[in-house]
């Protein structure tokens, strides 16, 4: 395929508007928390679809866009996903994770019970396409898949937060059951399960401190 450049002339914002937008987004994102207690209240589906569309604008290696977003609302499918996830999580919390990992998790108050998989009105299961499947059965390698899908998930979480929705990045391990239950093709590997909805009225989150800008920024 030949490189075909096209003009790119985005509107340059005045400094005061750019600063105001950046400050507003920072304030919005500083309020983001990982939520494990969801309300069953319905969420406008358009907001979720728009957030997925934002995620799909992420940069990717060689512009191969190696991601699939599976939106799950069916109660029976979500029940089966929760059942399978909790079975794996019980094994993990009973020792598969190792004591160091369990020590790191204790301040977060997590365990093998995952009500968010059935309580949240939406589940977005993100799959990474390790390679492309051609129509004739051949395969084509994808590049920088982990990095590309990770960026897309970050943009998804940002879009959901801006829309006033709560989310959680859930990564049950191992995750092979997700592809099997959702009937995904052999080139796709589960990356994360993201419940989406509103926080429950009695929602609580860990009392955590984020690193300051000075702690994460290096100027050279």
TrEMBL record:
Q: Which GO terms describe its molecular function?
A: oxidoreductase activity
Keyword terms of this UniProt record: Flavoprotein, FMN, Oxidoreductase
At the top level, the lineage of the source is Bacteria
Which ranges carry the Nitroreductase domain?
A: 30-198
One Pfam family name from the record?
A: Nitroreductase
Q: Does the keyword Flavoprotein apply?
A: yes
Report what the protein is called. Nitroreductase
Native organism? Amycolatopsis pretoriensis
């Amino acid at each position: 395929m030949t490189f075909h450049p096209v003009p790119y002339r985005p509107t340059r914002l005045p400094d005061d508007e750019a600063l105001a937008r950046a400050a507003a987004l920072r304030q919005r994102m500083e309020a983001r928390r990982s939520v494990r207690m969801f309300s069953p209240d319905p969420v406008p589906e358009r907001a979720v679809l728009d957030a997925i569309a934002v995620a799909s604008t992420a940069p990717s290696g060689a512009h191969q866009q190696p991601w699939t977003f599976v939106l799950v609302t069916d109660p029976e499918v979500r029940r089966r996903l929760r059942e399978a996830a909790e079975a794996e999580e019980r094994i993990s919390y009973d020792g598969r994770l190792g004591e160091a990992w369990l020590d790191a998790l204790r301040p977060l108050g997590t365990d093998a019970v995952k009500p968010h998989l059935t309580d949240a009105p939406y589940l977005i299961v993100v799959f990474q396409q390790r390679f492309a499947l051609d129509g004739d059965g051949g395969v084509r390698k994808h590049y920088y898949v982990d990095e590309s899908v990770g960026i897309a998930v970050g943009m998804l979480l940002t879009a959901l937060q801006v829309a006033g929705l709560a989310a959680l990045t859930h990564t049950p391990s191992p995750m092979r059951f997700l592809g099997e239950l959702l009937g995904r093709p052999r080139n796709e590997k589960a990356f994360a399960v993201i419940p989406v909805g509103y926080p429950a009225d009695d929602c609580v989150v860990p009392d955590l401190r984020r690193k300051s800008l000075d702690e994460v920024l290096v100027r050279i």
